[in-house]
Amino acid sequence: MEDFDFVVIGGGSGGVRAARIAASFGAKVALVESGRLGGTCVNVGCVPKKLMVYGASFAERFHEARGFGWTFDSAPRFDWATLVDAREKDIRRLNGIYEKLLLDAGVTIVDGFGVFEEPRVVRVGERRLRGEHVLIATGGRSRIPPIPGAELGGSSDEFFALRELPKRVVVAGGGYIGVELASVFRALGSEVHVVHRNPELLNAFDHDVRRFFAEQLELHGITLHLGHTIERLDRDGASVVATLDDGTKLAADLQLAAVGRVPNTAKLGLEEVGVKTGRDGAVLVDDTFATSQQNVWALGDCIGRVQLTPVALAEGMALARRLFGGQPDASVDYDLVPTAVFATPEVATVGLTEEAAWHRGERPKIFRSTFRPMKHTLSGLPYRMMMKLVVCEVTDRVLGVHVVGPDAGEIVQGFAVALRAGATKAQLDATIGIHPTAAEELVTMRTPVPSMHV
Fold first, then answer.
1. Residues 250, 365: one domain?
2. Active-site choice (193, 376, 435, 453)
3. Is 435 a catalytic residue?
């Protein structure tokens, strides 16, 4: 038996942050991980996805360049394997950085799959680790749809293992991951169909965002099958055929499921030691991340709350400060969490949607603008941007900011600070814009438009 102050199961964003900060406070820490350090975000999520998005974006830029006087002696050529190899090299670099951060902080890294033997004892192979506190930070995994032939398709994890660019792709799911991967394939020349069970994409986003985004996706050449589901997959020679609920058949080289993620808590022995779980195996925790077992904690994607890397980092920081840093009130504020979808076009948002504002009892004033980005006046491309503000009619406080278009995430990150500081519409109006930029539109909109409830 090896004794520690803190045993962390999971080397993703939340687990690494909690382990490292706890060690910096003097705790004796062990971190258990059976895969590559960095978790989903570094290995099969945010980082490699964004690199693929960057790679795919050059296709449109080459096309835009012609309107600005650039000519090419031959058509640009793209090699998928070159991009993948460069991406994997960078991921290995990040894996090494994570390892160095942990070792420099004094964390003991235990390679293997951790299983609870007792509430505060974790077995990893032949090793037994006992912790004064134990943290479950095992993240999530792709949900596999329970349909006949599901094994013929892949998930977002398999996307990162592809060695060739498929010519025809069907994506099941119109959330973050589905539309991002669909955009990458389409930009690189694949024929792409997206099948989504709801009548609109990006379910939790503002209704204007959802509709405008779908229009722009279609302009980019993606075929949408909204309000439909895939009922089965079948092999037909070299193709895999998806049969939709209305009988439509879509043959493709790749059938990709992006229908959500589930907590990665199977085979940890949670039930045997009395750690309660809920829907899809999510570990049940209170506001302090405490589970049903004393001194056993859980955070990040495995608790099924806000499944975003920066949120897991904040949760890991708060828990380490509370347990080992003498800060018993350390907590995470889930209000005003900004988020972005790195599709084409990009989507970013912070604060309330128009629907949520009404549901909360606000009387929102709505400011909305759609326009052609300046770049496209010469590129000749038909794409447009949309920006929207949700403002409290009574207090004038800005409740939500929504952007669809190039660099949406970069724009909204700054406005997230403004909303956190309590910015009002009058303060936005008094702010001088940077001209010519797209972002200045958010400080120059003056005339409200009818709200969905008016």
1. no
2. 435
3. yes
